[in-house]
Amino acid sequence: MAMPLVYASTNLEVTAFSCNPSEVVNNNQFSCTATVQNTGTSSGTLNTATLYPDSSNWLENSNYPKTVNANINSGASTEVTFTGLKAKKSGDNGFSKIMLDDATDNYVSDNGVTVNVIDVIVTASSSASSAASGVTFDVTGQATAGGNSDIVLSFSGCSIGSQSASLRTNDMSNGQTTSHTWTVTMGSSSCSYSISAQSISNPSGVATKTDSASSTVTCTNCTSGSNNNNNNPGGSITPGGGAGGVVGGSSKKKWDVMDRGIVHKWKLSDSALGIKEISIEVHNKAHNVTITIMKLAGQPASVTHTITGTVFQWINITHDNLTDDNVKSLSMRFNVSRFWLINSSFSPDDVRLQRYDNGWIKLVTTRVSESSNEYEYEALSPGLSVFAVTAEQAAGTGAIACGNNVREGAEQCDGTDLAGQTCVGLGYAGGTLGCTGCIFNTAACTSMSTGPVCGNAACESGENSGNCPSDCVAIEIPQAVKENAWWITVVVLIVVGILGYFYYHGHKHLKKFAYKYKK
């Protein structure tokens, strides 16, 4: 009896493929891993696997070979990692094939595997090249997105009053543009401004790229005054001079008299200066006190000591007719961008204000509030000089990383970790809350709720202790009061009657009025 012939064969094919990360910055390296399985009936050897980009040739090289030299048994698999991949073109880019020795595998193209490569280019323009002090002009920033991303367009330098310094545009695709115009008021010196655009990969936010553009609008009638002050231990700063030249303008305030026992406050409306409020109390009365705040582009030449930590902002504060010895208490409030903390991998508790006084001194700094865009801090200082807002990780603490699905530091969220927050909790009627660049993404939330919001610690119209006990605390009437309510009412009426009797008989004009009325 003849037996049928059974032929053993090897069949190698790609069964899975992914890139790490799946969102990258243009010109940055990344890697991709393919799972190769032997679906045949006999073992076989894979010598070389080669990865090819799609026809757009978005990768630096035309192909990426990987030596494997692995024997794969029937039903078994092996992983092949292609390293050193570098994108040279932004967009949602894909692959055409993987060559397994001489065999072509189309898994990557058939399954539409892509890598989101992001980039951003920003331009800045002004409606005027020069302007007089107090005159307004427009500055426009435009950003072009590369890949699928969200763009944060920010303005710094010069006075924009109460306008928001940062604006975010979500869900941009490759080649799309976004722009914003700020109205700037010329101060007491020429305006040097900067427009920055941060691209945050969408949807995961694991990749970020920043580009910036800057320019100067000349002040036509400003005078360059000297700020020399022997009481300034940090040294005087001449606007525009040296590495620490003024980048965000300046602001000055004068007190004819600073009396003792009074806290003198200066609230600044120009957010570009970095300082939000200064509060000063003196030991002895001081006359003709002048304080000038200047935002610097970098460490001034007069500062000869190296600062520790990462600097968010440099500030110089000069003063006339106010010595450190006469300062009884001095506090300053300032803001730090949440985006900066996240992108720099710092926690809000890592922020310190440092003062230069023949060396850098870390001041007692307290976080007092926060918003969706920034944190507000208050620091205590023994005097005024050169300051730096810095951040530095405490010893023994790990680095904070956006994109690890663990909300930490300044992050509002991280991937799937939304810290229990929802669209409703943020005041929307409903929808699905997202997370982009470790900041809440409300694009999928429905319209803002106009009704009461349960859980916001406010008992609003329409809420009661029954439908929202967390906001509305019920007032429980004691049982003894309920049981004796009738007697309590009688006693109250008697007391009111007695008080009314004495009040009536104690006022003669009321008696006369009653007598005339009877007649």
Describe the secondary-structure layout.
Layout: E1 12-20, E2 23-25, E3 29-38, E4 44-53, E5 64-72, E6 77-86, E7 91-100, E8 103-105, H1 107-110, E9 114-126, E10 130-131, E11 136-146, E12 149-156, E13 166-172, E14 177-185, E15 191-201, E16 208-219, E17 246-258, E18 264-267, E19 275-282, E20 286-296, E21 310-320, E22 327-337, H2 338-343, E23 351-356, E24 360-362, E25 365-370, E26 374-380, E27 386-391, E28 434-436, E29 439-441, H3 479-483, H4 485-505, H5 508-518
Parallel strand pairs: 2-9, 10-16
Antiparallel strand pairs: 1-3, 3-6, 4-5, 4-7, 7-8, 7-9, 9-11, 11-14, 12-13, 12-15, 15-16, 17-20, 18-19, 19-22, 20-21, 21-27, 22-26, 23-24, 23-27, 25-26, 28-29
Structure description:
With 519 residues, this protein is mainly beta. It folds into four domains: 12-112, Immunoglobulin-like, CATH 2.60.40.10; 118-219, C2 domain (Immunoglobulin-like), CATH 2.60.40.150; 246-391, Chondroitinase Ac, Chain A, domain 3 (Sandwich), CATH 2.60.220; 404-457, no CATH class. It has five helices and 29 strands. It has helices spanning 107-110, 338-343, 479-483, 485-505, 508-518; strands at 12-20, 23-25, 29-38, 44-53, 64-72, 77-86, 91-100, 103-105, 114-126, 130-131, 136-146, 149-156, 166-172, 177-185, 191-201, 208-219, 246-258, 264-267, 275-282, 286-296, 310-320, 327-337, 351-356, 360-362, 365-370, 374-380, 386-391, 434-436, 439-441. The strands form six sheets. Strands 2, 4, 5, 7, 8, 9, 11 and 14 form an eight-stranded mixed β-sheet that branches. Strands 17-20-21-27-23-24 form a six-stranded antiparallel β-sheet, with no helix packed on it. Strands 10-16-15-12-13 form a five-stranded mixed β-sheet, with no helix packed on it. A hairpin with a 7-residue loop joins strand 18 (264-267) and strand 19 (275-282). The longest helix has 21 residues, at 485-505. The radius of gyration is 34 Å and the shape is extended. The N and C termini lie far apart (144 Å).
